[in-house]
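User: Hi! I'm working on a homework problem where we have to compare a predicted structure to a textbook description. Could you give me the structure for the chain below?
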Amino acid sequence: MDCWYRQTDIVHRHPEWPKLPVSLRKTNPIIDIGRWTTFRITYDEDTVDSRRFASLHEALRDFNIEIKDDDEFKVDIPKVRPVPVIWDVCDEPEGTRSASAELMGDSYVLLPFSIRYQLEVCISNGFISEYAATNEAFVHRLKDIEERKALALLEHVATDKKVYWNPMEIFDILFPKASTRRKIPAYCCMMHATTVTPTMVYWDTPSMEITNRVIRNFSQYSDRFLRVRFKGEKLEGRINSTNHNTMDEIFTRIKRTMSNGIKLGNRKYEFLAFGNSQFREHGAYFFASDSQIGAAQIRGWMGEFSDIRNIAKYAARIGQCFSTTRAIYTCSVQLQRIHDVTRGAYTFSDGVGRMSRFLAQMTQQELHIKTPDRDPPSAYQFRLGGCKGMLVLSSQARGQEIHIRPSQEKFPAEHQGLEVIRWSQFSMATLNRQLISVLSSLGVSDSIFHQKLQRMLSSLEEITKDDKAAMSLLQKYIDPNEMTLTISQMVSDGFLVVQEPFLVSLLSLWRAWQIKYLKEKAKIVIDGGACVLGVMDETGTLQGFSNEKIQNIGTSHEDRLSALPEIFLKVYRADEKRYCVIEGVCLLARNPSLHPGDIRVVKAVNKRELGDLKDVVVLPQLGDRDIASMCSGGDLDGDDYLVIWDQDLIPEDWFRTPMDYTPVKGVNLDRPVTVNDVTSFFVNYMKNDCLPKIAHAHMAWSDLLPRGVEEIKCIRLAKMHSDAVDYNKTGQPAYLSRELRPRKWPHFMEKNYKPKDQIYTSKKILGQLYDAVDRVDFYPNFEMPFDQRILESGIVVKDELVEFSKELKVSYDLTMRRIMAQQEIRTEFEVWSTFVLNHANQSKDYKFHEELGRISKSLRDRFQGECYDKIGSRQFEHVAPLVVAMYKVTSDEVTAALVEFHSTNPSPDLKPKINSFPMISFAWLFPDILGRIALRYFEDSDPALVNPAVDTQATELKAGKETGGVKIDQDVEKVTTLITDDLISLFDDLLSEASLEQSLENQMIEEDANLVEDEADIMPSAIDSLQNMLHDSDEDNLYDP
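Assistant: Happy to help. Predicted structure tokens:
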């Protein structure tokens, strides 16, 4: 047991100290543990000669601390005590009420809050020392220069991560002029954030985030919201739960932060609430109240929660308002309440309602959602007032109707606007360690897993060499952000054939990313499978689960087949270029699956009544028990379900008994819940949340014990895991008992900090798969030349656009570097594609992939918006010259950097350092337009774009003749033939789409006039549209290359 008691502060404590807010500046420190990194201990001569001093030397050597004799070592002892710090100059003196610097004397300099905040970012992260910046000239200089320039300067320091021992040197920084406008998409905000550790407060540069309901409603106060995360010290990561009191001081500090707030300058941020995902990652929102509004008023606006007496449920209901959503403004909704489908103790419709096709189309148009057949998604995960869950496309809902069930209504609220979290779409099916462990225990042969692993590794080897193989794989291995479809389209546009450096780097990254998760998670992609949202069969045509049928089952295959519950699944198959209904025996599961009964065997059937539902798995409303709850305790309020129809993975036993996932009942108070109750629950959750420990214990025991997940210990851990998952809803923690804590760990779990005698080499399937995969490194390919099809396209580019592109690239690169720094991501390729190899671990990998998808999309939307604003149009003929300019500017930067690098590094083995090389993702803000330019789907319809002097050269390039040292193969060119019937169909589609766009135009609420000024003229003429659609029949269609 650890006998060291963690400490967070060593200060002179006075009676008011426990009531003070937390801040970077310590109050009356004896030792500032988080900030002081060098200590001097003095001894008199008698002590130096003593035996005890010699023992101290030996102890230091035991900890590999080197001792040197240095007679010339000098210490500059400050003459002034206490030693002055920058806060003495820029913080309001205690007890002063006036905000006027003149009334406080010359020693106090009032900085604008944006500057004061960014200064704290630099100080807290160690780029500027609070002791070195005490010179009043430094603070006066910051105040005297223009605010936006001072802000840009400090943001540059934070992004560059260079330490300035003399802070005055930052004013000598030379960096190119950039676009200083902070124009962001209307659905985003610049969010302030901080991380509170046991000894420190680290502030982050404000970053662009998609908003939630609360921040949208109080947008005028958006700079007063603060996202707070509680973590261990920088090298420790997450604060883990503990049964001992050695960590009590850390949890006391967290409670003090949530009770007393966080102070920065003249603002005090107080606890507001936390979103449900945020809660699991130990985060919360704080708000800096002023005379106009406070945190209590904001909570009062969210809804009526006074009837909820369970603390955990109270916090969860408030958390609904903080889900990251996109608000739908195009039309209001009409609510109708319908009954839940219940049978016995089970609710078959738990979390799912209905919506009209009209509303689904309006939502699709407003969010610019693309689907393979242009139909609206079949289901949306939503928030609406106090309602949550899923809305499924239904003919029973008409006009602007939404049908809500009681299981979806969580609390009453005045806010009635529709908000969308995500929508139904196809994603690849993957195995993982838990699924493989369960399937192996159920009898699936080890050789099956090996075959699928080797097939996947072989396929990944071909992606940078063969464009057809790359496209095929990218269209199968579709990630939740659908970035593989974007990359597939880039391959289809010929960028792999010409070895374009950005695309080749993306493919290398994607391969490294896939192999990383094969090694660490056994994440094997299954071609015959899908990961989709689950919904209920509203028609009542699917057969449900029946205990009677299972008890009376015969031995024949037909008898077993007839006893299976039915599902409906219709998914888009890229290789067939159409939607296909899956039929036959399938596996149905959710992640994580730990119990032998979590993976259900079902029968997929074709039902004409359900044919309109695509990229969702439809579960029956009939039977003795809902299938969703059998799958690891799932429901239909937004859960993803894994469906596998690969017959190699179907176990022989189809009817394993599912686990009972009835949650533990929570405790209700006999009084209203208070904010103090909520903050105490937050701290107790951190202290008692042992979900990761339970999951790891289950994996270790299932590998060590002969019967795997069938062992009693594993069954107990599976139940305990379920209770731990529900902790945030019930308030009842799960405790990992001593006998269930593993004493041996398999090597594939990489418990490198454990003693060697506790690690063994696993011989089971997970150990075999781990040993069969070797990690690969990723390094971007900077040496390959940029695509001559773009550089020599013949499109006329004005000097004005080149200069604008240079300025915009500086701003883009700074924003990209800021995202990389905040998320601790190594390269821009990972941010752009969302295939991240390593990150700050602020959330689980699968959640982070989705979160980064939103960040990456908002980054593109922001800078695409600036481009549209510059040229005043979204039409191809107006955007294309700017896109070429952006590509040329990037190419010139990289070429110049390579020339400089090779002139100083003649060795061919040396490669440029990634962090010091120009960024190139800026050139790919418009990949679809680059594809049209590369394939010259413009020269006939847009002759005004082309410079006649180079048109002949471009035509030769297109034909495959060598021009400028680059040869393009004939198979790059895409030939599109539109017969008469197709033209008529396309024209009808355009007229229908134009009609819908006109309806949207009439109803659009302009939340940000600057960002939507071009929306009123989205639809071009029918003829222009047909010409644009020659590029894959739809310029933006990524599904049909």
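For your comparison, note the following. Residues 96-105, 950-1041 have pLDDT under 50 and may be disordered. The longest strand covers residues 525-536. Good luck with the assignment!
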